[in-house]
UniProtKB/TrEMBL annotation:
Record keywords, A-Z: Lyase
Database matches in Gene3D superfamilies: 2-enoyl-CoA Hydratase, Chain A, domain 1, Lyase 2-enoyl-coa Hydratase, Chain A, domain 2
Record-linked Pfam families: ECH_1 (PF00378)
Biological classification of the source: Bacteria, Pseudomonadati, Bacteroidota, Flavobacteriia, Flavobacteriales
Keyword Lyase assigned: yes
Keyword Lyase: yes
CDD domains: crotonase-like (cd06558)
Species whose genome carries this gene: Salegentibacter maritimus
InterPro entries with a match to the protein in the record: ClpP/crotonase-like_dom_sf, Enoyl-CoA_hyd/isom_CS, Enoyl-CoA_hydra/iso, Enoyl-CoA_hydra_C
Family: Belongs to the enoyl-CoA hydratase/isomerase family.
Protein name: Enoyl-CoA hydratase/isomerase family protein
Length: 260
């Protein structure tokens, strides 16, 4: 599919989704959010896609935030709608995506950019990356899940400080904060992230989807994550991947998962 604001490229099962508005530091305007929604929807149905790596084009930015020029004159109702639609179509969509999504943070990840990286299942950053939620400097609060996902990842005190100061932290500090799992040289970021994706792809993607549902259940209001785990664990026994995984182990050979 052809897009104007993003580029997609499937490299042997790893789908790269690249936000491609480098002149605007890949800021998320309405069209970009819609295209990302469409790309993720296609990727969900496409059996050739096993893992998604999300990154920004150019050397400067992953995503420098929501496009400020689009909401400068919004009313309260329009603001609410922007956040609700964005969360449903992109941020929650990514967080609950049934295939692993890794954010390769290659520069500024600010506001909606950091929120998008946080919606991914985990993050790898280049050592020049800078992360922050600067919304309070604009008279706003984060609206794409930042007030919820940042404390989950870094703890309440650190999240409060980042939101209140509207400041940026560098990749080294993000690693200390557990906001990113790894930091590497900018020109090694994609290769490094692909190596993790390749490791993931050796395992059962059916089990992976179940694990995503179970882990996410811990963060859903009124849902007992342990019960979701028991149910998903039980369902795993009825999959072809389980039969293949256990029979490969018992026969001392490498598993070749059918993905069913
Ligand atoms: N929305 C809209 N446009 C943005 C943007 C955003 N979030 N972030 C950057 N841009 C645009 C700039 O307006 C500029 O466009 P122009 O060349 O047409 O004037 C272009 O991207 C380059 O940005 P610039 O500010 O010139 O780069 P810089 O290196 O001086 O500064 C930042 C980089 C990231 C520090 C700065 O762009 C910034 O603070 N951006 C906004 C971050 C933010 O508040 N995000 C949260 C939004 S809720």
């Amino acid at each position: 599919m052809e897009f104007e604001n993003i580029v997609t490229e499937n490299n042997e099962g790893i789908l790269h989704i690249i936000i491609n508005r480098p002149k605007k530091l890949n800021a998320l305007n309405r069209d970009t959010i819609q295209e990302l929604h469409e790309a993720f929807t296609d990727a969900r149905e496409d059996e050739e896609v096993k893992v998604v790596i999300l990154t920004g084009s150019g050397e400067k930015a992953f995503v420098a935030g929501a496009d400020i020029s689009e909401f400068a004159d919004f009313s309260a109702e329009e603001g609410r709608e922007l956040a609700a639609k964005g969360q449903a179509n992109l941020f929650d969509f990514v967080a609950n995506f049934p295939k692993p999504v890794i954010a390769a943070v290659n520069g500024f990840a600010l506001g909606g950019g950091l929120e998008l990286a946080m919606a991914a299942h985990f993050r790898v950053a280049s050592d020049n990356a800078k992360m922050g939620l600067p919304e309070t400097s604009l008279g706003l609060i984060p609206g794409y899940g930042g007030t919820q996902r940042l404390p989950q990842l870094v703890g309440k005190g650190r999240a409060m400080e980042m939101i209140m100061t509207a400041g940026m932290i560098d990749a080294k500090q993000a690693l200390q904060y557990n906001l990113v799992n790894h930091v590497c040289e900018p020109d090694e970021l994609i290769e490094f992230t692909e190596k993790i994706a390749q490791k993931i792809m050796r395992n059962s993607l059916v089990a992976m989807s179940a694990a995503i549902r179970a882990v996410n259940a811990n963060y859903e209001d009124g849902v007992n994550g342990f019960e979701v785990e028991i149910s998903e664990f039980g369902s795993s026994f009825a999959t072809e991947d389980f039969k293949e995984g256990t029979s490969a182990f018992l026969n001392k050979r490498k598993a070749d998962f059918p993905g069913k």
